[in-house]
Amino acid sequence: MTDRLPLFPLNSVLYPGLVLPLNIFEERYRALVRDLLARPEDDRRFGVVALRAGREVGDLPVDTVDAVFPLGCTAQVATIRPHADGRFDVVATGASRFRLLSVDESGPYLVGEVEYLDEAKGDDAVVLGHAVTRAFTEYQQRLLGAQGRSMVELPELPEDPVVMSYLVAAAMVLDLPDKQGLLVARDATLRLREELSLLRRENALLEHLRSLPAVELVQQGGDQPN
Q1: pLDDT single digits (tens) 133-186
Q2: Bridge partners (DSSP) listed for residue 48
Q3: What kind and span of H or E run contains 17?
Q4: Could you give phi then psi for residue 100, rounded to 5 degrees?
Q5: 62 pLDDT more than 50
Q6: pLDDT by residue (tens digit) across 176-214?
């Protein structure tokens, strides 16, 4: 089944179940929100697609299909708060993944023809979920330690492997291509397997950084290109 959705390109990835707060100030997206307000509340949704590296929202709509990743997530609007100067504060929640089939650039904002994707668990999601839970708990504690913050008791992850896979994807500090790769995964099993690999990589890196003398960390930071 295909659908037409207003598109909102961002420099980040939205996952199902995650909250998305937005301050709308650019005119084309003000027009998008005004059109959403004209719809019934349960039909106020738009599609979020991540911009590829080196692209900015202001670059669009030139080569739009090449400027964004072809798989995104719908955002279901929860609240819209208008301001006197025409801006809007919008809070939405990620809902369904979609594949972008084509882009209509004729209006004030981009509109995509999309097809929605299923949310399958896969064969090994439950077993992998336990392994990811352990690795993610270690990751959070190591990250707190690297930031010089005291260890805390962290909330438990949900048992549903699909929901868990998206929460872990959103919480990890990763480059955008890695974030997008987790969104693209066909089912929760593949997403959790990739997360386990990424968590092991990040935990090893955090352990290595923790073991370096402070002076060496400063020197390494100074060697980074501008």
Answers
A1: 999 999 998 888 776 666 556 678 888 999 999 999 999 999 999 999 999 999
A2: 8, 73
A3: none
A4: -80, 120
A5: no
A6: 999 999 999 999 999 999 999 999 999 998 887 765 444
Q: What is the pTM of this model?
A: 0.85
Gap between the Cα atoms of 201 and 143, Å rounded = 13
**Residue 195 vs residues 128, 138, 143: alpha-carbon distances, Å:** 10, 13, 16
Position 48: which residue type? V
Please check whether residue 207 is in contact with residue 138, taking contact to mean a CB–CB distance below 8 angstroms: no
Radius of gyration of the chain (CA): 20
Q: Which residues pair with 103 in a beta bridge?
A: 112
The string over 174-185, giving b where at least 16 C-beta atoms fall within 10 Å of a residue's C-beta and e elsewhere, is bebebbbbbbbb
Identity of the amino acid at 221: G
- Contacts of 119 by beta carbon, 8 Å cutoff, 6+ apart: 16, 96, 97, 162, 187, 188
Q: What string of DSSP letters covers 119-167?
A: -B--SSHHHHHHHHHHHHHHHHHHHHHHTTPPP-PPPPPPS-HHHHHHH
Gap between the Cα atoms of 38 and 44, Å rounded: 9
